[in-house]
Amino acid sequence: MLDRLKKEQGFTLIEVLASLLILSIVALAFTAYFSNALTFAKSNQNKTIMSNLARNALVYMQKQDFDRMESYFESGIATVVRPGNSPGTERVGIAPETFGSCTNDTSGVCVFRDMFENRNLEPLRAVLEPRVNGVQYRVVIEYQKELNRTEAEGGALLLPIRATVTTAEAGSGGPGADAVTVEGYVNAQSIR
Question: Quick one: pLDDT at residue 46?
Fold first, then answer.
């Protein structure tokens, strides 16, 4: 029995160090994988937040006065939210600063503040400039005139709009927070 115990040997120091080296290399590979997974999860979280903010803005706009909103979009004084390449091709809509100076003013775009319930612009500002998880976002509502159909095609009952959400400061939302756009329609009161 003593001979058998003498023949048994443990691991040498070199074998232990080699196995630790292999184990640490494998652990580093897993660390990189989990780091990438965390970045991907944060990116998806930012896109989800921005998508929900865009949907929230569309729902808010769908509850406003259809006729006044259509008049605003078709007026020559609507806010240009995206310039066009040639005259008349710009996109109009509502940006956070559109009604920013409308306290008691009744000129310019402020004439259309009555499209919002009780002429109250605070809910509009909250929808267009939300802050979520310490990040300030900016929502722009854009009228898609090229999608609007004629009255014979049922266009008189729908206003095609899109809500685009970006962060107020570039890069402040983290990875995946470039811009999210959601499209929808504002229905006329007669079909609500």
Answer: 87
